[in-house]
Amino acid sequence: MSYVDYIVRRGFQSIPVVFGLSVLIFVISRVIPGDPVRLALGPQASQQQVEKLRAEMGLDQPLPLQYVDWLAGVLQGDWGMSLRTNNNVLSDIVARLPATFELVVVTLFFAVLLAIPFGVVAGTNKDRWQDHLSRITALFGVSMPRFWVAIVLQIIFVVSLGLLPLSGRLSDGVVPPPAVTHLFLVDSLIAGQFGTFVDAAKHLVLPAFALGLATLAQVMRLIRSDMIDEQRKDYVLAARAYGLPNNLIEYKYMLRNAFTSSLTVIGLAFGFLLGNAFLVEIVFAWPGMARYGVQAILYQDFNSIVGITIVVGVGFVSANFVVDLLYGYIDPRVRLEEN
Amino acid sequence: MGDTLLEVRNLHVHFDTYDGVAEVINGVDFTIDEGETAALVGETGCGKSVTVKAIMGLLPAARIPEGEIVYKGQNMLNLSDAERHARRGREMSMIMQDPMTSLNPVLTVGEQMTDVLKWQGRRRLSVTEWVRDKLARTSDAEYRERAIEMLADVDISAPERVFDSYPVELSGGMRQRVLIAIAVLSEPDFLIADEPGTALDVTTEAKILDLLDELVEERDTSVLYITHDLGIAREVSDFINVMYAGEIVEQAPTSDLFADPQHPYTRGLLESIPTLSTGIGDGIEGHLPDYTDPPSACRFADRCPYAEPECREVYPYPRQTDDEHAIACHLFDGPPAHERHVDIAAEPVNIGRPPWKESSETNSESDAVADGGSIQ
Amino acid sequence: MATENTERIFDSNDTARQERIKQLKRGVQSFTQNKLSVIGLLMILTLVFAAIFAPYIAPYPEDAGPGVNYDQASQPPSLEHPMGTDTTGRDIFSRVLFGARLSLLMGIVVLSIAISIGVTLGLVAGYLGGKTNTVIMRTTDVFLAIPPTLLAMTVVAATGASLINVMIAIAFSWWSWYTRLVQGEVLSIKEDEFIESSRALGSGWFRTTFKEILPNVLSPITVKATLDMGFVILVGAGLSFLGLGAQPPTPTWGAMIAQGRNYVTSFWWIAVFPGLAISFAVLGFNFIGDGLRDVLDVEVN
Fold first, then answer.
1. Which of A7, A307, B67, B293 is the most buried (most CB within 10 A)?
2. Cβ <8 Å between A241 and B85
3. Which candidate, B376, B200, B364, places its Cα nearest to that of B273?
């Protein structure tokens, strides 16, 4: 089938997953023990007030009805009110989503970009020093807590060396670029504000590194083992026998085959990063969705919790969708065999 | 035949394994002349692949403690990595065995052929060159034409379509033709054909062999066929080297070999070929020795119906029995086939004459065997 | 005929056991040859030793609690205080040692719960198959789709911040990995002749499970559990960093880092050393797990 058909097909398959996810999220959120209404009103509230608010929020309806109401609302853009900030949850999230998205995308991009050459070198030099070094580096990368790495980076690069900023997306006094995508890197380039671009980039360096170190380690090792598996394949022997350049064989012939399994992990990593960026966001006071989510959980603000989880869930599914797309592009067998 | 193109002398190839050193190739000698088609025949595991990979320089994990591989007068083992790489595909090329796995599945046939035409022989490709080439695109049409021409030469009826196809879209026979096309693209002087067609059905295999025959004739290429099938070797080659457990046990021009097969292993192989007159042959009992702990003398002794105690004590150096016929077996007499063995192998070990040369009855048996039977 | 088969079966059982013992010996050999694994083992042994004997090793054991010693407050690392002191004058080294107890305890408790539940469910699902299998596996899938930290955080937020709640919460999100692992193994072994013949002999499912299936599943579980010790400690640290774990003055590593974070610009050691301790522990488990994985030749995600 053609590539377009393949894309459409995969898109349709994602929908029931998102749907199932929404049900799950809803059920979990309603099942959390603890009384959010009391929390919002405080311990002094009378029973009457509690019941009034409960009715207002529709919390006295049977669950399935609540779900339907809720789903209808969600699709129309009404994600409920945050018990904590007293804003519309959707607007809360929309305000914060670009920050997290930008962080996660930049992190993933550089993690993968660096993981590829390191992984290829480790894989093609199995059991030699390059391989051992990569293994040890990967083990370290995966063992250090992200939030602690973030703090250490701050100590070294901000306090000690003064090279990079401590927190936030932009320095004090720097005006955000005119909002197009709400991604500062992109928007500042569009507006031609290179100073702002550099400032935003500087603010991204440490958080992205802290967040992405473990992912870099993981992906690097995966590419390494995939490359090792590819080495044994017949087409590699053939390519060598034909006298093709070694680096061409590694990067064009082997990597393309090896990469497909890494791609799945990268897709998963996107979802994982989205869901785990909060610790880094907290350390860097990053005005993102993840931090908002943590606060929501701590305050048992379930509308917000639900909203965040939807976004994370959809993000996850979308990431997998994109992975599927890339899969179909890189490996033609996947879409040719769909018949 | 012309001058000597390739001479393999006393080749030893060892591998380091967990269980010790595997002495896989144990002193292999053979020659291939210009324009000659020779065969390297032996069962799976006897070392045929290892030998040809050593010739091509595709064994990074192996050690070659002794021996020379002299191609066009130069010892390949003394050349640098880059120099060897430069010859691969251009001077000496290989037709891979398994068409189902030897083509990169994620690239089109055309892309793989173009890559070969553009970059063959270079050890490293710099990024700037690659980028420049991507941007240029002018010579791509030339390469495409040349590749399609080659695809047509290997009897592919719709070469443009195949050029743009992915390997998964092609049949096994087509893929094998593509492999041949790629191997011959740069007009190498020496071609190694690693059991071409064994992965395919017999009819297609026959067609592939015919095709190879044609191509080789046209271009006057020297070919080394790797095969486990003596019948095929007979069809395609002028000279046969029979290999067992990393050694050449018998070598002779094809007609001589079939007229008068001498080494017990060769005879065993021939008897295994099913014929109309003798029915399905018997295989040879037993299996290859453990390369990490090989016999110090004859490596075939444990499977040989004619083995004597001397066979397990004294190493059977190859001896010349005829003009171009050499055998490594104590049943045979003659001067050592190689200069370097003249002193060690001066005294032949006498274990009697080959039993099949005793009576006239056994003569007719050997005639039936020598007929070679039909290729099934 | 039946007796012949029976004898053959018993023979093959014995040879299988002998094979396993031989493999075990070989495994131990190659494990000790792997430098990283040995280093990891030493690291963890050090950690365990520190945890057990903390009250005797720590120079200022009373600092593990609510000690106040203002004249020693915020001292940089020195001979008396190898890791410095925090803002209330407590010796960080001593606190870190006591923190090791909490971390190890967390790892052991969480994994004990998670493995017991997970493996049992996996065995049941794989062995019984059919609808039971489907139900259990779908539930597992749902749990696997949610990032463990988030799930644990949600549970703790709902149930209240304490060490026990954190342990239960993490176990709650961790069991599903083991169910999936075990179920997969059971399914593939179920086809084996071994089991068929064992069942034919009349041994009940209990015997079959424990004698035939478990030994085969032991390898991947061991590797995963070793690696998980490290990851559970990481997740637990994250939760205590957020204030969701054992409450102060209990010296959990994560909480110590959270405290130290406020003084990053001046007293860097307060946040750095507990983190080093976490990294040390996790690294040790990862070294061992990595080595075990090579030795047992296992594929664990």
1. A307
2. no
3. B376
Q: Say whether residue C30 is in contact with chain A using an 8 A CB cutoff.
A: no
Domain that includes residue B33, residue range: 4-239
Cα C241 from Cα C247, distance rounded (Å): 11
Is residue A6 domain-resident?
no
Alpha carbons A176 and A168: distance in angstroms, whole number: 12
Tell me the pLDDT band of B232, cut-offs 50, 70 and 90.
confident
Task: Indicate whether C76 belongs to any domain.
Answer: no
Q: What is the CATH number of the domain that holds B290?
A: 3.40.50.300
Mark which residues 225-254 of A lie under 8 Å from B by CB. Answer: 233-235, 237-248, 252-253
Q: What CA–CA distances, in Å, run from A11 to B18, B114, C190, C281? A: 50, 35, 37, 43
Q: Are residues B250 and B234 in the same domain?
A: no
Going by pLDDT thresholds of 50, 70 and 90, the confidence category of residue C300 is: very low
Distance CA B373, CA B317 (A): 30
Asked if pLDDT for residue C207 goes beyond 70, the answer is: no
| Mean pLDDT computed over every residue of chain B | 84
Contacts A333 to B, Cβ<8 Å: 105-106, 166, 168
Residue B219 sits in the same domain as residue B263? no
For residue A17, what pLDDT is reported?
67
Q: Which of A234, A244, A336 is nearest residue B115 as measured by Cβ atoms?
A: A244
Neighbours of chain B (3+ CB pairs under 8 A): A
pTM of the model: 0.77
- Residue ranges of alpha helices (H) inside chain B are 48-56, 81-87, 109-119, 127-136, 140-153, 159-163, 172-184, 202-219, 230-236, 254-259, 264-272, 360-370
Closest chain C residue by Cα to residue A157? C265
Residue of C nearest to A265 (CA): C301
Interface touch A238/B103, C-beta < 8 Å: yes
Strand, coil or helix: B45 = coil
**Residue C14 pLDDT:** 66
* Beta strands B74-75 and B62-71, pairing class: antiparallel
**Measured between CB atoms, which of C241, C268, C272 is closest to A147?**
C241
Task: Kindly state whether residue C218 falls inside one of the protein's structural domains.
Answer: yes
Q: Inter-chain contact A155–C264, Cβ cutoff 8 Å? A: yes
Find the domain containing C285 and state its range: 31-56+109-296
Q: How distant is the Cα of C299 from the closest Cα of chain A, in angstroms?
A: 12
CA closest to B194 among chain A residues? A238
Least confident of B57-66, C75-84, C189-198: C189-198
The minimal CB distance from A235 to the residues B102, B121, B130 is found for: B102
Arithmetic mean of pLDDT over chain C: 80
**Shortest alpha-carbon distance between residue A126 and chain C (Å):** 14
pLDDT digits (tens, 9 = 90+) for C102-159: 999 999 999 999 999 998 888 888 777 778 887 888 778 777 767 788 778 777 777 7
Pick B134 or C102 by higher pLDDT.
C102
Residue B376: the pLDDT is 35
Nearest Cβ partner of A336 from B107, B119, B168? Answer: B168
Give the whole-angstrom CA distance, residue C137 versus residue C132. Answer: 8
Question: What confidence tier does C13 reach under pLDDT thresholds 50, 70, 90?
Answer: low
Give yes or no: residues B107 and B40 share one domain: yes
Which residues of chain A register pLDDT less than 70? 1-2, 13-14, 16-18, 20-21, 25, 27-43, 45, 57-61, 334-339
> For residue A312, which residues of chain C lie inside 8 Å, CB to CB?
147, 150
B89 within 8 A of A242, measured Cβ to Cβ = yes
Statement: residue C201 has pLDDT above 70: no
What's the rounded Cα separation, in Å, for the pair C182 and C215? 11
Looking at residue B332, its pLDDT comes to 82
State the total domains in chain B. 2
Q: Is some CB atom of chain A closer than 8 A to the CB atom of C43?
A: no
